[in-house]
Design a protein that fits this description.
The structure is a single chain. The chain has 124 residues and is of the alpha/beta class. It is 25% helix and 22% strand. It has a six-stranded mixed sheet, sandwiched between helices. The mean pLDDT is 96.
Length: 124
């Protein structure tokens, strides 16, 4: 399963799910966007570690959703990106993923925020 985590644009993966991605899923220092090892980075912070605007995050989420649709043989374990160090609330970020394909599995804490039925993996 591909581990999907929130990152920053310069790829400093020093804490939380990003550090976990480095240690256990091949995330690459210096790469803040996209597939790397058995992980996928979605930026939620900029180069100075400031939270991105939600519309910017939405664009990166759309890119991820397209990637997941283009790779139906891969399964994706999506963490609650942006809801830790970036400071967003679940209700702000979870709905951005509502149209994700069925090969995306979500933290069960996001279930109340989806209009569609999605599979869940548990909680990080």
């Amino acid at each position: 399963m591909i581990f999907v985590f929130g990152s920053n644009l310069i790829g400093v993966h020093g804490a939380g799910a990003a550090l976990y991605a480095v240690r256990f899923h091949g995330a690459i220092s210096g790469q803040g966007i996209g597939m790397q090892g058995s992980s996928y980075a979605i930026p939620t912070k900029d180069e100075r570690f400031r939270s991105l605007h939600s519309t910017e995050i939405e664009g990166y989420v759309e890119d991820f959703i397209q990637f997941a649709e283009d790779n139906p043989k891969l399964d994706f374990q999506v963490t609650k990106i942006g809801c830790g160090l970036a400071g967003f609330q679940d209700k702000q970020i979870a709905p951005l993923f509502d149209r994700a394909p069925k090969n995306c599995y979500f933290d069960e804490a996001w279930e109340p925020y989806f209009m569609s039925n999605h599979p869940y993996w548990g909680s990080f």
